[in-house]
Amino acid sequence: MSGLIGSILNSTTALKSNQKAVEIAGKNLANVNSTNYARQRVEFGISGGYSQTQINQIRDTILDDKIVREAAVTGSLEAQKRIYSQLQAILGEQITADVDSPETLTGTTTSANEGSGVSAAIDRFFNAFHSLATNPTDASARALVVSSAEDMVAQFNKLSAELVTLDEDVVRAVEADVTRANSLINDIASLNGQISKLEISKPGSAMELRDLRQQKLEELAKYIDFETHDSNNGQVLVVARDKSPGAGAEVLLVRNTMVDNEIRFNAETNELYFTHDTTMPLGPSPNLTAMDPQGGSLHGLLHVRSTTDPFGGAGASAIGPLARMREELDVLAREVATAVSGIHDDGTVPVQFFDDDDNPDLIDLGAITAANIQLWSNLTPAAIRTSSSGNAGANDVAQGIAELSATKLAGLGDRTFSEYTSDMAYRIGNDVSNTTLLIQNQALIETQLKDNRSSLMGVSIDEEMANILVYQRSFQASARVIEVLNTLLGIVVDRFGS
Amino acid sequence: MSDIRVSTSAYQQSLIRQIATNQSTVVDLSKQLASRRKVTLPEDDPIVMARTMRRTTEKRELLQFNTNNILAENLIKSSELKLSEMRALGDLAIAIGESTDAQASATERESAWGRLNDLVNQALDLANAKSEDNYLFAGTDFAQDPYRIDDNGTPADLSDDFVVYEGSPTDPSDPNFEEAEYYVGSNTKIAPRLSPQYNEDIQSYIQHILDLRNAFGGPTYDDVAVKAAIADIETSDDRLVVATTDLALKQLRLETAKKADTALFNQLDGSIAGEVGIDLAEVAVRLNQAQLGYEAALSSSSRILQVSLLDYI
């Protein structure tokens, strides 16, 4: 049995334990809105008959890992959706008609001839030829053909330029994300160092630093997918995968306190590389190992730009939408030029319609793209060829060109121009809506996981307040014990001390 | 029964998500109500968007064909009018020929010659008539007047004059034969000018009026020549009736095409409205429901979030 003095000392320990418990409850309350904060709990143990405290953190590493993985999936989808939405806006196809006000064929006002996008421009171009076919000698009909052709060519050039700009924007976004990812990789290595120092003697004690590292890991997952492995003294290894056959080989990004590899981007090859030496000049160097990201914004952005099937299969569907739209526009421009010139041009230099450059004497229709398509520089309204006989009233050439609008062309995959452009709109619309749907599903998964994690490690004000009341009462009780012991000790000292 | 622990932030986030979901629904429905469309961008419904684009292209084409139809109709009506006027000249020529007989004096025959000569010139003017600055009865060749009188190398001798046609070939078997066809409806392609083979009939018609004129050019009345020329004019007139019928049939095709296209246009418009448009009443009711839900979410959330154990200790 301990004496009165000993009892006072032991009660003081209880007092301190309850004081600590109130402090932890206060800390929990202070972090009620911190996303990655894992609530701390005071465990009251018994040592020599009196309570001793131990502080634990409530964290589920399995849930943490799942959340990291899902963050990578979301990061990729969100990056893709951002670009798909821009592609959709660039294509410019939208319904503007007031569907509540029926139009009539003979009505004086109609919105059908309005409309944005390349499809409307192509329609107007071929309809101008339909108009010219009714009266090949009409100067205004000829002028309309030239102006509608100029509009269509301008649309192609504009779309192409906007796609180039978007591609440059995506490259800049990749570079920015790589910089941010590398910064996070360094942060994680640095946090590993701080955690290992603190936890040498007391494993699991660097709780706030672990929270911070988890936050950095989840942030990093938004940019690139990776896996973590536990290492010594509370440190983690961060690994990504290269393009080795199969699932790819693991390559270390963070080895304990060291950054083993950073990420580098080469816009030309559209690849990410592991690199030890960040000062090494870029290029498709055999010394650099290419990454094989499967998640994160970097995966999404690289996929958008991809010009090859990332899964090794055939078919344009696997090509990134940005590259695909550029290719589709080039095909469209080339087919318009080839088909029209095939009827219009008579094989002599003086009669041409489209050109790929400013040299009127050298025409290479096969080299035409959406970026370089232009009207033959010597083309004037009067120079438009409307008939093969040369008779002023004949219209076989003009009519032949007009009828191209409804012709299924092999170069367009046996589709008409209208079918081809509507398919383009369908594909990008499908990309946006599918990605939106996937993001919504992904949000549900993430919400579910985060709710699960939050139910475990999140702070509840009600719970903490209740705990504070309990700890307060315990503290008061312990204080009362000390007071009583002190009284007893006073009696002993007063009676026997004199 | 095990209790599910709910953290304060999860609780708050859940309420905020509910508010955001309701708000998003309200915004979507408001947009639909304002534009009266449920599809504006490809992402709204890619399949409907693609179909609407193709239908809009069809509508644009129908509008163009309708314009072509109107132009073709004008051309046909002008041609019909000129042919009708030409036939009236033929009737007048026959009347002159029949009223100037063997009893007519030389002066009366000369007068008949003069009036018939005037009718020939009027008929030539009608045959060379233009619409929108292009000859009506020249086929596709507008390089010169399609009809003229050739003096046969003897300008002073009018009796051997004859009518020449210089438009595009009139024989369908001629390799250079051509007609300027174009679309006047989604499935109707016609050449609204008078079919070139009838241009030869116009030439013959004027030639026979000319023959009648020449029959009065001799020193005496030539009964045989006059009667032959009158008979020829009457035969040629039958050919012009056939030519007019040719134009009338084209006119009929124009009208049929216009009717069919009007129906098709309305059908396309209806299909677009059906797929793209909204049911105003339904969306208005849904918006009302969504607004109520949104307000309820706001109200309940604000009440719930205001209360905690802090209020009771």
Any overview of this molecule?
The complex is a heterodimer of chains A (498) and B (313). With 498 residues, chain A is of the alpha+beta class. Helix content of chain A is 55%, strand content 10%. Chain A is built from ten helices and eleven strands. In chain A, the strands form four sheets. Chain A has a four-stranded antiparallel β-sheet. Chain A has a three-stranded antiparallel β-sheet with strand order 7-8-9. In chain A, a hairpin with a 2-residue loop joins strand 5 and strand 6. The longest helix of chain A is centred in the middle third of the chain and has 60 residues. Chain B is mostly helical and 313 residues long. The longest helix of chain B has 54 residues. At the A-B interface, helix 2, helix 3, helix 8, helix 9 and helix 10 of A face helix 1, helix 2, strand 2 and helix 5 of B.
SSE order and pairing:
The complex is a heterodimer of chains A (498) and B (313).
Chain A: H1 4-30, E1 40-47, E2 50-57, H2 61-91, H3 117-134, H4 139-198, H5 207-223, E3 227-230, E4 236-241, E5 250-255, E6 258-259, E7 262-266, E8 271-275, E9 289-290, H6 296-305, H7 321-344, E10 354-355, E11 374-375, H8 396-402, H9 417-457, H10 461-497
Antiparallel strand pairs in A: 1-2, 3-4, 4-5, 5-6, 7-8, 8-9, 10-11
Chain B: H1 8-35, H2 46-99, H3 106-127, E1 130-131, E2 134-135, E3 147-150, E4 162-165, E5 182-185, E6 188-190, H4 199-215, H5 223-276, H6 280-306
Antiparallel strand pairs in B: 1-2, 3-4, 5-6
Helix pairs in contact in B: 1-6, 2-3, 2-4, 2-5, 3-4, 4-5
